[in-house]
Specification:
Strand content of chain B: over 45%
Strand content of chain A: over 45%
Number of strands of chain A: 12
Largest sheet of chain B: 7 strands, mixed
Distance between the termini of chain B: 31 Å
Largest sheet of chain A: 6 strands, mixed
Oligomer: heterodimer
Number of helices of chain B: 0
Helix content of chain B: under 10%
Order of helices and strands of chain B: EEEEEEEEEEE
Number of strands of chain B: 11
Radius of gyration of chain A: 13 Å
Radius of gyration of chain B: 13 Å
Helix content of chain A: under 10%
Structural class of chain B: mainly beta
Chain lengths: ~110, ~110
Amino acid sequence: AQSVTQPDIHITVSEGASLELRCNYSYGATPYLFWYVQSPGQGLQLLLKYFSGDTLVQGIKGFEAEFKRSQSSFNLRKPSVHWSDAAEYFCAVVGETGANNLFFGTGTRLTVIP
Amino acid sequence: DSGVTQTPKHLITATGQRVTLRCSPRSGDLSVYWYQQSLDQGLQFLIQYYNGEERAKGNILERFSAQQFPDLHSELNLSSLELGDSALYFCASSSSSANTGELFFGEGSRLTVL
């Protein structure tokens, strides 16, 4: 069955530092992978997605992610973090039933310190 | 603003009671999804409707039911409420049932069961 694992529950970085959030997936075929962000008191917003092709995908707000099939990973990166990036980040995979329902990881909470 | 509207935003009720959560999808979106977010379970997919028909079912309890009406709004009914049902319930919508994975989330309905 499909699933994603986010090994880091909470990450703290300094403003201006680089960021990498980890995501590992388990899926029977080529996965459709996503990163969503949830700001405090808000719903989730799509940052970026991977379906096929170029393994490095660009998203909104300066985020990018790299799909590595050999490592079953889809890590999210940003070269320079801004204080407004403090939020919870969720990796997700589409269900294998083809119904477009997403299965989310447990999330990584990002704290940005000045 | 995602365009997805959920009501009520907050709801406090007692064990054994029944509540209804309402969702209006983005204009033109045919698919509606319900998710439950709790501290211990994370984000769990409950159920998906597409143009009035149930499309996929996740970890939805038998005490819970949902429907999508001809005007495409959806309702999630939670009955015989238990303390453990306290959670944030999200509705999301998308334009199709295909595997795009791009869901637009509302801000959620926070249910507290006392």
